[in-house]
Amino acid sequence: MGQLSGVQSQVFRPLPDVLRSDAIVERLTTAITLGLLRHGEQLPVENQLTAMLGVATATVRDALHTLRQRGIIETRRGRSGGTFVVGAPSPEPEMLRQRLVALSMAELRDLADEQTSNGMAAVRLASERAFDHDFDRLESIAQLCAGADTQVDCMRADFRFHIELTVLAQSERLMQNEMRLLSESVEILWSVLDWQVDRVWAAADHRAIVTALRSGDVATAQAAVREHIGRNTYRLVERRLDEMYPTGKST
Amino acid sequence: MIVIEGVESTAREVAEWFSRIIDDLARLADESSAAMALARGKRPALTPRDLKATGPAAARFLDKHPEHEAAGIILRPGVVGADGEIEWWKRDLDGSLRTILFSLTPHTAGFYDFETLEWFSNVVTTGRPTLTGPYVDYAGMDKYIVTTTVPLRDGEKIVGAAGCDIEMRALEPALMPLLRRVKADVAIVSQHDRIVLGNSGRFLVGNRLERLSDACHTVELGVHELGLRLVAVPARVS
Predict the structure, then answer these.
(1) Across the interface, which of A5, A8, A156 has its CB nearest the CB of B109?
(2) Per-position pLDDT tens, chain A of length 251
(3) How far, in Å, CA of A150 to CA of B103, rounded?
(4) Of A33, A221, A233, B9, which residue is most buried, by most CB within 10 angstroms?
């Protein structure tokens, strides 16, 4: 792998202190699931990974070992050797449940706050900078959720919509922020939602944003972004409470 | 409409810069087609392997235009495989040439839906050179770039496009010296009224061109049908 694009350097940003090997596995799994690392792509070599992620060599080795065992990466020897992405990770409900439970109420709210502010900024800039043909394209992407027929497809369609919306802002930074925020949240979100029902809601929310943008109504588009993220956050919070405090109101 | 000194001559130089790119892309298209035909030999259809033969043509283009990030060809679905192919070459830091990976299978992670993108769709439907951007190329180069494309032909038939990408931060030093010579606020504007580059804080890259008063000097660059123009207004008095 040569130079990293801005998006990919986000994938390899330094890790927090806790559970570093698990965190590497998680981050790479998410990146592959979301297509930030593509099938066939070569990973940086071990000492590059060590430096980029800010962890010990043994930690990187541990993580790569786990990914290799799961059939997600493969290491080949020889002149054109290296470690390559070869498999698609399948969603692991238990891992996603743990990620949700690890987030406090305050952190969930904060994540939603940052997503909302990034989304509202993207909508304002898109309204200033996008053209009709951009909205045509975004509108067809907004339909993807409704037509998705697995949980993973729904999640990818949702991810895709938010990225493509941010793309219309013409800002690399906003896109990188959005990429990071979605990497943290979108898999957990769809593990909590009932995809067969909620894909319809998601698609309707996405369409509402595009419709408002197309008519040049920034305030309505921003309100739609807030409502969309608010709805998702409500569901995340409710599920987390049920998981953590099972004797609560839902029983 | 007013006349601002130096705008016409700057427009000619900017036009020449873009013309050279279109001319060399046309050469890249011809050389790539010829190289693929040679690799195919007597076989009835192209295989993905035959596309590797386009490397030397892409290398010649990139050597001549080192400010460009990548160059290559894109084949429409059906020419090689159902999803189309992108043979997009770039130089690594060590100078070696390699192709960039794209995910071209629908419903997979990071699917690059290039058929719907202007730099592809416009070229294959109209047969005309196209300049797209600046835009953030998600799932492609993942950078803020301008893409220029020309048709790629097999005989009379358009089978795809040949093109190149330039990062906005590399385009700036290539063209800004020309714009800075004009003693006025000047911008290169795309066919969709997007600012490609401006020589002052008034014209920010990627913004839509605001409605200007009549007191401006506009020159169509006339580079094929790219729709580029130069717009100049007297500098603000601060």
Answers:
(1) A156
(2) 566 777 777 778 776 545 788 889 989 999 999 988 998 999 999 999 999 988 889 899 999 999 999 999 999 998 888 999 998 888 889 989 999 999 999 999 999 999 999 999 999 999 999 999 899 999 999 999 999 999 999 999 999 999 999 999 999 999 999 999 999 999 999 999 999 999 999 999 999 999 999 999 999 999 999 999 999 999 999 999 999 988 755 54
(3) 19
(4) A221
Task: Give A-chain residues touching B111 at CB under 8 angstroms.
Answer: 35
- Domain co-membership, B107 together with B52: yes
B115 vs A: CB within 8 A: no
Q: B23 and B51: one domain?
A: yes
Q: With a CB-CB cutoff of 8 Å, which residues 117-136 of chain B face chain A?
A: 118, 134-136
Tally the domains of chain B. 2
In-domain check, residue B54: yes
Same domain flag for B114 and B159: yes
| Closest approach of B189 to chain A, Cα-based (Å) | 13
ipTM tops the 0.90 cut: no
Domain span holding position B212: 178-233
Final residue in a domain of this structure, among B114, B139, B169:
B169
Give the gap in angstroms from C-alpha A82 to the nearest C-alpha of chain B. Answer: 15
